[in-house]
TrEMBL record:
InterPro entries: Metallo-B-lactamas, RibonucZ/Hydroxyglut_hydro, WalJ/YycJ, WalJ/YycJ-like. It comes from Periweissella cryptocerci. GO terms for molecular function: hydrolase activity. Keywords: Hydrolase. Pfam families: Lactamase_B_2. Residues 11-167 form the Metallo-beta-lactamase domain. This is MBL fold metallo-hydrolase. Transmembrane segments: none annotated. The lineage of its organism: Bacteria, Bacillati, Bacillota, Bacilli, Lactobacillales.
Length: 262
């Protein structure tokens, strides 16, 4: 399995996953044109993408979904509550392309198993995905206020993670966001801070884990270096050998990460 985080951040999210038989996306939270250009950057084309998995209805996850579905005709998977919440926000998607995929289910596409799981976030029924191929696992978990004990079981010891490091708590507290928005982000249905993302990663990682991507950084309330150093420090304090046991990668809202074997 190969993975590229095409874009990650509060401004837009898309992740690309491929196996010998399938090429899929998780979310398309940028314009269709931007997703096309990011795919081009990793030497791939949307013409070959045969499924798109949507996590929830926030615009940083669905902005380009309608355009891509209409232009390329791939099936789009989301749970029924999310479909209802999306409504007409992204225009009309032909009924035969709209697939229901409920949380806690596994969808098998030949050599790729896709497992959906619920997260705690202020959307209708947000779910993220873990991909399994040839006994390798890649889990994406962003847009969540915390990780439940049950999720710890589901996501334990994956080969790679894209995990949320949304904000620095001090930057968020001191910053210009309205009080209510700050409360929302900090709540159990908001986003993981750098510290919380580090602790979640520490709980999840195991001897198989070789890659951790830090994602969904807030433009206003975080910085790439700050997120990286904070996570690295918390891990090192617990005697976890970052960049030895596994690699810790940054992601970017506009630059795709290198297509990497999981
Ligand atoms: Zn969200
Ligand atoms: Zn988001």
């Amino acid at each position: 399995m190969k993975v590229s985080v095409l874009a990650s951040g509060s401004s837009g999210n898309v992740t690309y996953i491929e196996t010998p038989k399938h090429r899929v996306l998780v979310d398309a939270g940028l314009s269709g044109k931007k997703v096309e250009s990011l795919m081009h950057d990793i030497g791939r084309t949307l013409k070959d993408v045969d499924a798109l998995f949507v996590t929830h209805e926030h615009s940083d996850h669905i902005k380009g979904v309608g355009v891509l579905a209409r232009k390329y005709g791939m099936p789009v998977y989301a749970n029924t509550d999310t479909w209802d919440a999306i409504g007409t926000k992204i225009g009309v998607i032909p009924a035969e392309q709209k697939m229901d995929f409920e949380p806690g289910k596994v969808l098998t596409l030949d050599d790729l198993d896709v497992e959906s799981f619920p997260v705690s976030h202020d959307a209708a029924n947000p779910q993220f995905y873990q991909f399994h191929h040839n006994s390798k696992a890649f889990a994406i978990v962003t847009d969540t206020g915390y990780l439940s004990d049950r999720l710890h079981g589901t996501l334990q010891n994956a080969d790679a993670y894209l995990i949320e490091a949304n904000h620095d708590v001090e930057m968020l507290r001191m910053g210009g966001y309205a009080w209510s928005l700050k409360q929302r982000i900090l709540s159990d249905k908001g986003h993981l801070s750098n510290e919380d993302g580090a602790l979640a990663a520490i709980d999840l990682l195991g001897n198989k884990t070789k890659q951790i991507y830090l994602g969904h950084l807030s433009k206003e309330n975080n910085q790439k270096v700050l997120a990286h150093v904070t996570v690295e420090q918390i891990m090192q304090n617990r005697d976890i050998a970052v960049d030895h046991d596994f690699m810790l990668y940054d992601t970017d809202p506009e630059i795709a990460t290198k297509l990497t074997v999981i």
